[in-house]
């Protein structure tokens, strides 16, 4: 078991999150205690020792609230309860108590942009009719056309198709995601008050922080007449850059920040203050606004996740990300995988111009990915990320080196993207396949029965049981890296080395150690210093391709 003494000391620091390593748990795919094939809270609690031994500082749980799973739990029917398939509030309290006993912080998802269509408020809105107070909690509008048969605007759903759905009385409601996820109206004071109650509810139960889903989309320009975008085919990123900053009708509007300043007052009323991190898919300079100390304090850095495995591009992204965080008074965040993207052990091996959806539709065969080469690159990327100043967010299973399960049969897919796009986009199920804990069993130790998504036979070789205590395994690499990181980190600065060969990233940390990553196709000489850790064996004192080493100076 990892020595937690230094963590216990840091846990009393209100700024513990600035350099924390946070482990994301997707509850339905982590561990199943009751054998129904769906991961649950008691399953997570039983496996918390794995996280403590890994050496992370906190776990972040994706939604575990009541939900019909129209969007993997992000369609929330009650934000202050537990889905009965996943447990009870007592189970949640037991999980928090055990996590804290082990020295782990607990972060939960909050989903403020929308609710489930099963939420009591939305059902009341459907039954109350146009112009009612109940409908004002959501975004209902009359349609266009002679009989209101056309959507109110050309706004598009992230999951495909119109962002409007018509109800039997003829009005339309806004859903930027699935139709089962109606958008809330943040001009309504009841909506704002209810979310304050939710923040206090979980904070009072011992939660240490919040991850804010779709943090950039709460506030919309609902002034009449609603305005079209004019180019509905644009992606989120393209639409944001096509308009002056802060003026998009429903993304990243300047008004959203008053909400988070209000939330910060609530979070700071606790001792220690509760942390928060924004999921905000906006350009870096705009992302910094969400991370200001009087708002959420931190925001996910998606530029790093999307960067190619190329030295100069990564160097620029890292430099810009650190500058953005510094300007906000926040620490940087780093992430390689999460529940929405292709696992990096596969993604980093794909050519830069790969159509990722086409690759998924091919079952991961066009182009084929060499799993061994992908794992080598993923290990190098991980050591690079863990050497950077700031917080690192790990996604469950990456410590095992899991690849994307790209060949899931279409008949088992659960992601609403598949159906909503007319079975054109395969969706995110491939990174959500339940974890393998043992080398045998109906679900490789995930639970006593099967799993809600099928696991490939190759998962046995990646199981915790197969790697635990095995020198050189990916699991042991993560454990060693996190143990060393805890000892080495002291400060939030880095200095780029001036003598780096082409294709090599080198930087010194203020603590007197160096990280070197070889992203080129050839081995390079290893700089002087004591080898503390290497992502792959060294080649006669040389650093091979797709390898990262930490050196004592």
Automatic annotation (TrEMBL):
Q: Kindly state which keywords UniProt assigns to this record, in alphabetical order.
A: Hydrolase
Gene3D superfamilies with a match to the protein in the record: Glycosidases, Oligo-1,6-glucosidase, Domain 2
Q: Which residues cross the membrane?
A: none
InterPro entries linked: GH (IPR017853), GH13_cat_dom (IPR006047), O16G_dom_2 (IPR045857)
Task: Report if keyword DNA-binding is assigned.
Answer: no
Q: Which GO terms describe its molecular function?
A: hydrolase activity
UniProt-listed SUPFAM superfamilies? (Trans)glycosidases
Q: Which residues form a coiled coil?
A: none
Recorded hits in CDD domains, A to Z, give: AmyAc_OligoGlu_TS
Answer yes or no on keyword Transcription regulation: no
Q: Which residues are in the Glycosyl hydrolase family 13 catalytic domain? A: 24-432
Protein's UniProt name: Glycoside hydrolase family 13 protein
